[in-house]
User: Which sequence fits this backbone?
């Protein structure tokens, strides 16, 4: 506040010899760097003392991060297209997990293939049943998001932005407290029956063939990526199109993460009293797989289809998009549907991981996912994904090695620090200020 | 002379305020108003003060903030700690808030004078230096001033009659809570107010959550065992009287009104209208934002002190970020940039939601009020998105620009003097 002094004031006041303040800036940056170094030191010491424990925490963080990623994608898409912080998104996530809870506990839908073909192998029933449950909950949440958009946000689209924000808060309260009514979800923690049985894989139980396949997938997609890039540089349009294809992305994301996790869990080492014996549960693997798959599908929709093109156009300039003959209302509704669907899938995965559902369960994951979207750069899909992974790691590592009760505070401090250092987030575009 | 100077609207305003004071004070003294409704009135006043602060930050200065409850919590806990310690024969709380904030102000002046000698000083740098001197000021107070002045202050205050010393301690506690809120908002505001509107809102939301987590761990991570962390702080004296509530409320209203009607207030409004244009006409945008933010947070801190000494119990859960939407909802319902709207809606909101509906709904339907209230909110936003009162103000609070003739006269007067 002292830095901006008008020219006139300078003349009127006694002339002060003003010097360059860069040295002061560097001093304070040095202090911040010192602070960062302390954090790095604490984490590094933890890694050195017990690498096995540390990497186990990293795996747990991945599980959390992938769930946050699914919620964050909805936040970021909705913000990108209607510039609205949709506070009700966390509650859509909650409704999604309750939908799956009812589908499992009351309707028993996760075993439907066994009703039709009683002789089916139980593994196959489990796989099909889980996919069904995820789809049902995606459908319910997507529908809820569309209804929300139609009746709460659309009438306010040309009103001041704060009206829409207050409406979002109102919708959020409504979903929570309507859910708390005794005949809806009740206000108790409810134990959630997982759609599939949990098995924990540790070293020796993971076949090297699977690990090899994953590494192979990673290597193949990376090789394909670099080959396509050299071809694309020489002007091959087809190669350029393939370079941006989600299939390639799926290859390296899926291959990379699974290779990483399975390799970590598949190795057993013992030396000098330090034991490296990690385990990974099938819940984590399902969460990773579903999250990567859905994220890549979303990328496919956004980059390769007419709808995605329309979405990008509407996000860029709604009026111009309307002039080009795009049905902007439909595009916004489908954005909400996609975002809600992803939140519903996240709801199933979250409830599966933590084994309980609760009418306020959407608030904190919703907020963390929102923070992830901001860290990654709000409006950017890869940013939301990366931000969510960072958020998951921050939460788990700070809980594990810095201070357990302070983990939320550390996550949100990270948000403030990122905003200060990198105001638009990692992948965000600088806002074009119109004068 | 005084009465002549006080213009008509001000006269009416003060008269009506005094009338309200008497109308509530008489049943309170006669014991006609039960404790529940007394609490509701005090709570309404506290919420309204918090919301007036938010209206200054968001309604008048355009900085979308969700951090108001964080400052409210800081004010509440700080002032409660001061009186709690005083009850246990310990003046350290009193001295720390008093001398810590005074020393900090002194150091801020020095740092500002020092930083003025440089150009290209980034906001983050300013934040670092101001934070360092704040820490230094409080360290000095705790380390040297408290042992030095503690016994003397204690015997001095104990020499006074109990009723007098209690009022003095309570005053210092309220002022100290407000000062703590002000100092923290100043430090937080320097770097964060540079961000754009939505990002600022998100950062303040993060601030509220951080404060809530810190309050949950006051006895384990912070050195305040008497706050008892997540179990909630008990043993706070119930010292808030209607006079104190009324005085602080009037303080908030009049300070805000006079601030907004001054030239500084017009720079605050100009920043809301168009930041870029305000900068171009030579307004120091950064300091206008910080001023509005700090004053708004001081109001919240003051309200926190009032609320803490009325409820006599503090729990971190009542300051979580879901609660921090309440001032935002009230300020939008009442009309952004309308003090009248905020005041009336604030009281109405507490009276309806916590008073009438909680008491008079049929049993088994208490939870329904939280279902119906968002629906009313949605309807309000659909039908009247500009708020119940829009930009309406009662005459005293209305911005009255001096008429052209008066301003011309005012400019001519010094010239006459020179001619004479």
Assistant:
């Amino acid at each position: 506040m002292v830095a901006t002094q008008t020219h006139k004031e300078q003349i009127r006041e006694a002339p002060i010899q003003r010097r360059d303040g860069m040295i002061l800036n560097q001093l304070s940056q040095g202090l911040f760097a010192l602070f960062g170094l302390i954090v790095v030191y604490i984490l590094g010491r933890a890694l050195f003392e017990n690498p096995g424990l540390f990497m186990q925490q990293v795996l747990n963080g991945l599980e959390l991060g992938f769930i946050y990623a699914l919620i964050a994608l909805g936040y970021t898409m909705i913000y990108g297209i209607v510039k609205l912080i949709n506070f009700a998104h966390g509650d859509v996530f909650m409704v999604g997990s309750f939908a799956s809870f009812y589908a499992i506990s009351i309707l028993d839908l996760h075993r439907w293939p066994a009703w039709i073909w009683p002789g089916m192998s139980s593994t196959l029933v489990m796989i099909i049943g889980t996919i069904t449950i995820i789809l049902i909950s995606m459908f319910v949440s997507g529908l809820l998001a569309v209804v929300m958009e139609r009746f709460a946000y659309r009438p306010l689209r040309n009103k001041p932005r704060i009206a829409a924000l207050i409406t979002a808060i109102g919708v959020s309260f409504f979903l929570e407290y309507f859910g708390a009514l005794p005949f809806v979800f009740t206000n108790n923690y409810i134990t959630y029956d997982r759609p599939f049985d949990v098995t924990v894989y540790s070293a020796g139980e993971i076949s090297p063939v699977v690990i090899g396949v994953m590494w192979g997938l990673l290597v193949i997609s990376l090789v394909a990526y670099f080959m396509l890039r050299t071809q694309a540089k020489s002007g091959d349009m087809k190669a350029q199109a393939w370079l941006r294809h989600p299939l390639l992305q799926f290859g390296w994301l899926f291959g990379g993460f699974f290779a990483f996790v399975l390799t970590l869990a598949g190795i057993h080492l013992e030396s000098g009293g330090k034991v490296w014996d990690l385990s990974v549960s099938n819940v984590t693997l399902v969460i990773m797989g579903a999250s990567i798959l859905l994220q890549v599908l979303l990328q496919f929709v956004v980059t390769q289809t007419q709808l995605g093109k329309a979405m990008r156009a509407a996000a860029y300039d709604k009026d111009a998009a309307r002039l080009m003959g795009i049905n902007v209302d439909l595009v916004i509704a489908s954005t909400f549907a996609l975002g809600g669907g992803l939140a519903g899938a996240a709801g199933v995965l979250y409830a599966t991981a933590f084994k309980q559902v609760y009418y306020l369960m959407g608030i904190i994951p919703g907020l963390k996912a929102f923070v992830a979207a901001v860290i990654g750069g709000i409006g950017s899909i890869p940013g939301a994904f990366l931000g969510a992974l960072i958020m998951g790691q921050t939460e788990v590592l700070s809980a594990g090695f810095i201070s357990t009760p302070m983990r939320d505070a550390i996550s949100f401090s990270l948000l403030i620090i990122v905003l200060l250092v990198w105001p638009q987030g990692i992948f965000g575009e600088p806002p074009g200020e119109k004068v | 002379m005084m009465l002549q100077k006080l213009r008509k609207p001000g006269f009416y305003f003060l008269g009506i305020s005094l009338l309200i004071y008497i109308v509530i004070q008489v049943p309170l003294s006669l014991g006609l108003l039960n404790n529940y409704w007394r609490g509701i009135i005090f709570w309404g006043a506290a919420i309204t003060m918090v919301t007036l602060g938010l209206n200054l930050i968001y309604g008048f200065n355009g900085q979308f903030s969700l951090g108001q409850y964080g400052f409210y919590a800081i004010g509440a806990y700080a002032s409660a700690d001061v009186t709690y310690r005083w009850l246990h024969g310990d003046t350290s709380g009193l001295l720390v808030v008093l001398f810590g904030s005074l020393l900090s102000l002194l150091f801020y002046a020095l740092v500002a004078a020092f930083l003025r000698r440089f150009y290209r000083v980034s906001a983050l740098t300013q934040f670092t230096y101001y934070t360092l001197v704040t820490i230094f000021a409080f360290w000095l107070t705790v380390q040297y001033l408290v042992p030095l002045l503690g016994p003397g202050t204690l015997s001095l205050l104990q020499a006074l009659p109990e009723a007098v010393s209690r009022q003095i301690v309570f005053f210092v506690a309220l002022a100290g809570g407000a000062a703590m809120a002000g100092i923290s908002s100043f430090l937080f505001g320097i770097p964060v107010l540079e961000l754009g509107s939505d990002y600022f809102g998100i950062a303040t939301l993060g601030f509220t959550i951080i404060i809530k987590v810190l309050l949950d761990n006051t006895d384990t991570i912070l050195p305040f065992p008497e706050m008892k962390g997540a179990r909630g702080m008990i043993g706070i004296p119930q010292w808030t009287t209607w006079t104190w509530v009324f005085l602080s409320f009037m303080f908030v209203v009049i300070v805000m009104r006079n601030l907004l009607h001054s030239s500084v207030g017009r720079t605050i409004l100009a920043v809301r209208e168009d930041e870029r244009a305000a900068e171009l006409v030579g307004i120091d945008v950064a300091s206008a934002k910080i001023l509005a933010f700090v004053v708004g947070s001081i109001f919240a801190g003051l309200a926190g002190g009032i609320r803490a000494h009325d409820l006599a119990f503090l729990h971190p859960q009542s300051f979580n970020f879901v609660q921090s939407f309440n001032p935002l909802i009230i300020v939008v319902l009442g009309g952004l940039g309308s003090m009248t709207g905020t005041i009336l809606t604030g009281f109405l909101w507490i009276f309806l939601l916590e008073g009438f509906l909680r008491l008079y709904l049929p049993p088994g339907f208490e939870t329904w009020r939280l279902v119906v209230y968002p629906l009313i909110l949605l309807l309000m936003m659909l039908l009247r998105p500009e708020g119940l009162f829009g930009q309406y103000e009662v005459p005293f609070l209305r911005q009255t620009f001096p008429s052209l003739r008066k301003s011309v006269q005012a400019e001519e007067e010094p010239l006459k003097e020179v001619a004479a």
Remarks:
- Residues 51-82 of chain A form the longest helix (32 residues).
- Chain A touches chain B through 63 residues (CB under 8 Å).
- Chain A has a mean pLDDT of 86.
